[in-house]
Amino acid sequence: MINELRKDPSSIVFLEPVDWRGLNIPNYPQIVKNPMDLHTLEENLKAQKYESLEAFLSDLDLIWTNCKLFNQIGSPIYHTA
Q1: Which of 2, 21, 48, 67 is an S-S bond match for 81, by CB 3.0 to 4.6 Å?
Q2: What is the pTM of this model?
Q3: Are 41 and 59 contacting, i.e. CB atoms less than 8 angstroms apart?
């Protein structure tokens, strides 16, 4: 599933953790309390940190939820999520 998501060109913004310092968005950590990205999701899966499919899917959904929380409704990245 993760590999399929990685192949989608629109997933590029979700592949790695948000570099809020590099992107100069200092308020990101105050808004997004539990960051998640596809790389971290995959690492957690490899490390067998998910005890259930529901836990995995919850973290997957967290990627899109965080994106929608931080970005404005109607913005291109919001729609991508």
Answers
A1: 67
A2: 0.91
A3: yes
